[in-house]
Sequence to fold (180 residues):
Amino acid sequence: MKKVMTVDELLTRYAAGERDFSEIRLSYIPDRTLEDVNLSGANFNKGSLGHDRLERVNLSGANLSDVNLGFTGFTNCDLSNANLDGAELYGERSWIKGCNCDAATFRNAVMVMIMIENSTFKNAIFDGSEWGGDSGLSDVDLTGASFINSNLFTNSGFLACAVGGKIIFPDGKEVIFSVP
Fold:
């Protein structure tokens, strides 16, 4: 059973030097925004941070593996070198906008109904990830990213998603898409 923790308790414990927040669930507060916070290197393994809005949050090097991030929005966050293996990023109000996700890992992550815009994923690893629903990409840099054994080409996946703007694919090729 996950331990419920308030955001204030999390920030207090992080400021005191604690980094292991595995299996915690942040208490749910509708339309809460967590902003201008440094949580780099924190361990949230198997936790639940869903239903939150994160703005300008530094999660570089954080362990978000097997974390429920349903209905979570990331805006201008640093997720570089973060571990999101097995994470669940889904829901009609989920997004990654203006984020640095360079060298992050998303192995076996579930990416459904998520909008990704104006973000970089250089050398990110999406191996084994599942993409689907009404997901969308716009102005995303995927240079050097890996999608080995990922489910990208299903009826509701990567190819069927709404893609707009400039996408830089793993091989460095740039393609400009427009969505009517």
Observations:
- Confidence is low (pLDDT under 50) at residues 154-164.
- Residues 164 and 178 are 5 Å apart (CA to CA).
- The chain has one domain: 3-177.
